[in-house]
Specification:
Blueprint lengths: L7 E6 L11 E6 L4 E7 L3 E7 L5 E7 L12 E6 L6 E4 L10 E3 L6 E2 L6 E7 L27 H6 L1 H5 L3 E5 L7 E2 L7 E3 L8 E6 L7 H4 L4 E7 L5 E8 L3 E3 L5 E6 L4 E6 L5 E3 L24 E4 L6 E4 L4 E4 L8 E2 L4 H5 L1 E6 L13 E8 L5 E7 L7 E6 L2 E2 L3 E2 L6 E6 L4 E6 L6 E2 L13 E9 L5 E9 L8 E6 L23 H6 L3 E5 L8 H17 L4 E9 L3 H9 L7 E2 L6
Parallel strand pairs: 36-37, 36-38, 38-39
Antiparallel strand pairs: 1-2, 2-3, 4-5, 5-6, 6-7, 8-10, 9-10, 10-11, 11-12, 13-14, 14-15, 15-16, 17-18, 18-19, 19-20, 21-22, 22-23, 23-24, 25-26, 26-27, 27-28, 29-31, 30-31, 31-32, 32-33, 34-35, 35-37
């Protein structure tokens, strides 16, 4: 593998089976000096090579002591830095700090901290060697079930192979010759903080809470701040329905609580928890959630430099919040999103960028929920006023990719007829890079339109009607109703023909003389079947009035949850016929 700067290449050679004198090697090639150094000789296997940020340190695991046919092999952690003659053994199963019964994992990713002062790797439980003197048919097999098991027995058996390969993060300082164990059976999930530079990591686990997943659909999680100096833990929050994350500079842990619908921060210095969003009166979650579960959060935009402010989203707009909870939240998009039914999503144009700067003019990608138009806006942080529109139109946009050292972008723009890549310097004037749609010229393609109608309960609904390019209003067309929750926002999404086990190939059916209609489904608590009837059958009766619809040929197709809805609908109406794989 290459280092980040592309100046060094680490590689492993294998022994030539036809040459008894050949040996396996680990080599380091310097592309600037064209010099090759031998870091290790006579190994059976080497893997998981990792350079530090500057390319001056290299770590990997290797196994070199056992025979090729050994049933039990022990990998060790090796380290090399510029100036050494060869790689040095720094950790193995007997190193100070290693848990008894554990060894170095060959399945875990090895990473240096950004500053190169810490080396993170994995440890794993030593499994006994398989007894090859016994044949399978002579072995008794027994699975013991217990009602207090974290997982059901079938899930335990399914996950057995991955559990046997499970590793737990550990850390050491190069040259310290001591392992600090960070994760273990009680804290399986470890996340590095501040790119590994922080003196702590974030640990989470749902162990002991997994049984309830069988009827609640989710588990409660406990989070700790774990010291990289000695492995000691500080409890952040126990038994929460939240997902925990660390701020970029490592000053806070933050999370969204589904049950309170608020964001919280935990100060890593003081250990104090603050509710930072309770003063925001707009909903910070999916207001259209209509399934028997907590709604998902609307999302986050990111952090200001040095963790000064935390930017969170409501349904439409973006708010600046104080992680200490002292300052009132500020709507940085000025309520423009809510007033214009337009959502805003921050576009990070630099993959390595972790902060939003105080005076930065950020780029926002958006969609108008009424017209379904895609747009780009800019908004200057710390400056009052509405976001500034760059471009808008009947398209859907992907996030642009910016050149590192120039104001030049590559962007994907789509509508129902084509999806192409463009280059642009201002996101308004686009120059085509591809012409993929040219391959469609010999086919009867499709068009899409937004249809609105009144459902049986008196409320308005919307859906997408797909017609062939050569649609003739004097003809009568059969209609296939395909649906899955709500898809009307995808009016300008491109839909290419593709095989599927259960979903409708819209382009294929439309080009062969069908209409396809995709209605939004609006659910009422405890009434999933009746809600589907209210949405789908009302749509079918509405379309049946159109002179170009053959009301005797209306078909249903659904998959997964849509399959359940069809199973219900065919018992309640005879105007819709079953088409294809309704159940899956």
């Amino acid at each position: 593998m290459f280092d980040k700067k592309g100046t060094r290449l680490a590689l492993k050679t294998t022994k030539n089976a036809k040459d008894s004198n050949s040996i396996a090697l680990v080599l380091l090639y310097n592309l600037q000096t064209e010099k090759t150094d031998t870091l290790m000789r006579n190994l059976n296997d080497g893997k998981n090579f990792s350079f530090d940020e500057e390319g001056t340190q290299l770590a990997f695991v290797a196994e070199r002591d056992s025979s090729t046919k050994a049933l039990q092999k022990f990998y060790k952690l090796w380290y090399y830095t510029a100036g050494q003659d060869s790689a040095k053994l720094v950790a193995e199963k007997n190193t100070v700090g290693m848990q008894i019964g554990f060894t170095i994992s060959d399945n875990a990713t090895i990473r240096f901290s950004k500053d190169g002062k810490k080396l993170f790797f994995g440890t794993t439980r030593i499994t006994p060697a398989k007894d090859t003197t016994l044949v399978d048919f002579e072995l008794a097999r027994l699975d013991v079930w217990h009602y207090n098991d974290d997982y059901l027995q079938p899930m335990q058996l399914k996950n057995l192979s991955s559990e046997l390969r499970r590793s737990y993060m550990a850390v050491m300082k190069p040259g310290a010759d001591k392992v600090i164990q960070l994760g273990n059976d009680d804290v399986e999930n470890i996340m590095m903080v501040d790119e590994g530079n922080a003196d702590w990591v974030l640990g989470t686990s749902n162990k002991g809470n997994r049984i309830a997943m069988q009827w609640e659909g989710r588990t409660k999680t406990t989070a700790w701040a774990i010291s990289t100096a000695d492995g000691s833990r500080r409890l952040i929050k126990a038994n929460s329905l939240s997902f925990f994350a660390a701020s970029p500079a490592g000053k806070y842990v933050y999370w969204y609580e589904p049950d309170t619908k608020n964001y919280f921060t935990w100060n890593t210095s003081t250990g104090i928890t603050k509710n930072i969003s309770d003063k925001i009166k707009e909903p910070l979650y999916d207001v259209e959630n209509d399934v028997p579960d907590y709604p998902s959060p609307a999302g986050v935009t990111g952090w200001m430099e040095n963790d000064r402010y935390f930017f969170i989203n409501d349904v439409y707009d973006i708010w600046q919040t104080d992680p200490e909870g002292a300052e009132l939240p500020l709507n940085i998009t000025n309520g423009f999103g809510k007033k214009n039914k337009t959502d805003f999503n921050y576009v990070n144009l630099d993959r390595e960028k972790r902060f939003i700067n105080a005076g930065e003019n950020i780029l926002l990608r958006s969609q108008n929920k009424t017209s379904k138009y895609g747009s780009f806006f800019t908004k200057k942080i710390n400056e009052a006023g509405d976001p500034v529109l760059i471009t808008t139109g009947p398209f859907s946009f992907g996030n642009p990719v910016k050149a590192k050292d120039a104001v030049q972008y590559i962007i994907q723009r789509s509508d129902v007829s084509k999806s192409e890549m463009y280059t642009t310097s201002d996101l308004k004037n686009l120059t085509g890079l591809t012409d993929i749609a040219a391959q469609q010229k010999d086919y009867n393609w499709l068009t899409s339109e937004l249809v609105k109608w009144k459902m049986f309960d008196g409320k308005m609904s919307e859906g997408l009607l797909f017609k062939p390019e050569n649609f003739d209003p004097k003809k009568k067309y059969p209609v296939i109703f395909y649906f899955y929750e709500r898809n009307a926002d995808g009016l300008y999404a491109y839909r290419g023909p593709a095989p599927s086990a259960s979903t409708v190939n819209i382009a294929y059916f439309v080009s062969n003389g069908y209409l396809v209609f995709d209605p939004n489904i609006y659910y009422k608590d405890g009434e999933p079947g009746n809600s589907a009837y209210n949405s789908v059958v009302s749509a079918a009766k509405y379309l049946s009035k159109m002179p170009w619809v053959d009301s005797t040929r209306l078909a249903l197709q659904g998959q997964s949850w849509g399959g359940y809805q069809i199973a219900y609908l065919v018992t309640k109406t005879n105007i819709l016929k079953l088409h294809g794989p309704a159940l899956r």
